[in-house]
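[job 0417] fold request received: Anaphase-promoting complex subunit 7
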Amino acid sequence: MQLKLMLKSVDQGLCLHIPQTINKNMNSIIKQISLLYEQELYTDLVRLGELAISAFDQKHDPTVQFSKFQLQVYYAEALYNTQQYQLAENMYTTALQMRKYLIKSKNLKIQEDKEFITDVDIKYKIHLCCLKQKRSQKAIEVLQSISARNRTPKINMALGNLYRDSGMERPAISCYKEVLKECPLAMDVVENLLKLGVKGTEVNSFMLGAATELNWISIWLRGLAEMYLREYKSAIVTFKSLDTPGNLSNNSALLVNMAQCYNLLCDDGKALAILQRVVRNEPHYINGRDLLATLLANSTDKEHHKDLEHLIPDFETSLWAAEHWVVMGYHMFVNNKYERAAYFGQQACLLNKRNIEALLLKAATFMQISKYQEASLHYREALQYCPNRFEFNYGLVQSYVAMNRLREATTVAKNACKQMDHAPAALTLYASVLLKDPMNVAQARNVLERAITSDCNYTRAVCMLAEQLEHEQSYDEAIALLRRHAEIKSSSKVHQMLADCYRRLQKDDDALEHYHIALRLDSQNQRALEGINNIGRSPPSNKMDSSYYMSIGGESTTYTSQAPTGSDHEADADSDTDQWPNNGHDVMSFD
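[job 0417] inference complete; emitting structure tokens
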């Protein structure tokens, strides 16, 4: 009888001792895993975590459920930080289910330690895993499952970005406004709201309390509002008022905004100068670097092409942003390595599908290798993000012209005039398409005259109209137009065209004088050289070449799509002959 009582007491002691041992072991593991997490030793945490989870899955003691939940979360965090996103998503999902079970079972520890990690935090982590796997819709669904009253600014910001990228503007605006209510100086939110068409006064109403004593923030906001209202000249004036000592002098973000305004006004010379200033001030500044690469590549100055090489980052490619890939792509582009340029442009798009410079790079590359349909698709996609950018409209028009789709080209050019507020560049583009149909010559002349009236300094319009007058054998009228323009803005192209007109009138002395001036301004002007060599011979036919006058040599920059097509480089020893490695995919079939 006494033996039975002893055995019974021993059994009871064992039953009490085993859970305590399990708890002690579990707490010890959690402590060590927490230490690894704090020290960011994620690979070590993964190794230990996967073993610990298997070990403690064998234990069904309800007293260790909270510790198992903690272990699951730490393990998921380590997986995420070691780029194992699909497995991390699974672990977070399991942790979420465990937390719901613990709350439902009224587990004391989860009641005491509510701040360890919440449902909202776990769902945010799951959404990040989905984004890494390019599953945007699933990410939206996960965040939408969080009730509106439980959404933190971080959740609303993430949801707003996802709505924006999916084209759901109204819910995006609502989410961004919720962020501003709690964080009135969230500047990225401010910019997103302005981009989506919310008035500056409404955005400012959210910021009043926080920015009362910060005058520069109010001015900055006004500049942004003007920029997104397409009032670029006013925006430049506003930004310039901040680019002064005592305000935001030499601020890179300010300068990049100014450069973007100049680019949208088709003043690429000033845009380029400002972005070069940014690089001098902050050599590793990323924002605007892709636009700088575009402008350098499109410049007629070969020295600018060499500058691209200096912008290429010297660190590991896994750390490159989309802007870095665009730089590398344009470096390949100017060296006629078109396959590689397309590959690097695609790498940029994979990192940021809304990067318009990457889309422009890819489109221009397709134009070079005569894949006009693919080029048109990329130009159209870029126009969805920035419908008033001249390069996109010009490129799309050129791709349609190359495919002999003149009706679509005319429609795009006409719409460009509307989107760009009938800027001289857009009007000249429209005229260049109209001139391809003899029935539209009179209308084209009216459009060009309107462009010149709008800006008498716009050389492209002057040269195109002068060429048309020459084509109609109205040489005196063409000469008068060109001489007036030469007094305002002298260029090699203008003097070469003057010389051509004088030559057709057999005024060889005047022709020779202007050919020499043209060569003095640009020694590489081939038409001027040919003109001098042909003095005294019969003038050539009056063939109109409107595309040539859309990229006249007297301007500081030209446009990528105006470069020679791929057929012009077939015998080029430096052209790209080897396919760039692409993991078994055709680099020309990205969409």
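[job 0417] notes: Residues 1-20, 546-591 have pLDDT under 50 and may be disordered. The radius of gyration is 32 Å.
[job 0417] exit 0
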